[in-house]
Amino acid sequence: MLKTLENRGSLRAMYETMALIRAVETSLLDLFGKGKLRGTVHTGIGQEGIAAGVVAALDLERDVICSNHRGHGHYLAYCGDAKGLIAEIMGLPVGVCRGVGGSQHLHKRNFYSNGILGGMAPVSVGMAMAEKTSKSGAIVVQFAGDGALAEGAFYESFNIAALWKLPYLLVVEDNGYAQSTPRALEQSGKLADRPKPFGIPVVEVDGNDVEAVYEAAEQLIEHIRSGAGPGMLYCTTYRLAPHSKGDDIRDKAEIAEAWTREPIARARTKLAPDYCDAVDEAVATHVRDIIEALA
Length: 295
Ligand SMILES: Cc1ncc(C[n+]2csc(CCOP(=O)(O)OP(=O)(O)O)c2C)c(N)n1
Ligand SMILES: [Mg+2]
Description:
Elements: H1 11-33, H2 48-56, E1 64-67, H3 72-79, H4 82-89, E2 107-108, E3 111-113, H5 120-133, E4 140-145, H6 153-163, E5 168-174, E6 177-178, E7 181-182, H7 183-186, E8 202-206, H8 210-228, E9 231-236, H9 252-259, H10 263-268, H11 273-294
Parallel strand pairs: 1-3, 1-4, 4-5, 5-9, 8-9
Antiparallel strand pairs: 2-3, 6-7
Helix pairs in contact: 1-2, 1-3, 1-11, 2-3, 2-8, 4-11, 5-6
Bound molecules: thiamine diphosphate and magnesium ion.
């Protein structure tokens, strides 16, 4: 299926996005194991529903995305540029940032990523102020993990974003862990309630249900674009692969159980198996061809 402006929020289009992300990131782990990547690599395997659902609800002509250390999925959902991304992480001159940015410093058009946890909160809010001042009608979306919400920069950012009614959407990807620390050992209270004292509305959603993510994102984006001020989309999910490379001390039974709830298999139950098989094969071939050409 050819993704268009009209159909990109369809389950089929979002399945294609998720399948591409999964294929690229599975290959990145393989390349890492073979020593072909520069630096580290954090994959969002299991979290694809959030990238696919949120980005499908954006206006890609004008909206801005600020991503984090786990940003490959956000990037691929934004522009589908698997070659530029893989080459970038391989440190090659044909990478999207000529191979000098690597996995955590991606930039293309209105897409920016950075691995300093919380660091993109004031940057995103500043960008939202610029969009408001220039009356562009654009919104700025920041993706952040649950662990990052321990950073104080978020709370100064919430304050200014709410006070000045800035077009800022924070998407939290709560995968239950910050590296190897379970959320319960790091954070007090309920994370989804954090923006509420600032008067910032929060929508909570199952991040493994791509259609629910899309619908919730659309609703919040409409609210923010109307000039009402910032919002937060709080998505629960699970990271199926290690934090970065082999650093995984989580309970194996917990990980196995999470595989039964992952977003791609879940979307498949609502789509024709032949269609999904064809998409999976097409993305696998696409990614294999890219890697062969770069090797
Ligand atoms: C300011 C800062 N402190 C520490 C780190 C090292 N670090 C990288 S990722 C990570 C855990 C982040 O957890 P979370 O925000 O939940 O995102 P996840 O990795 O789970 O997607 C840490 C501590 C960092 N990048 N920046
Ligand atoms: Mg986390």
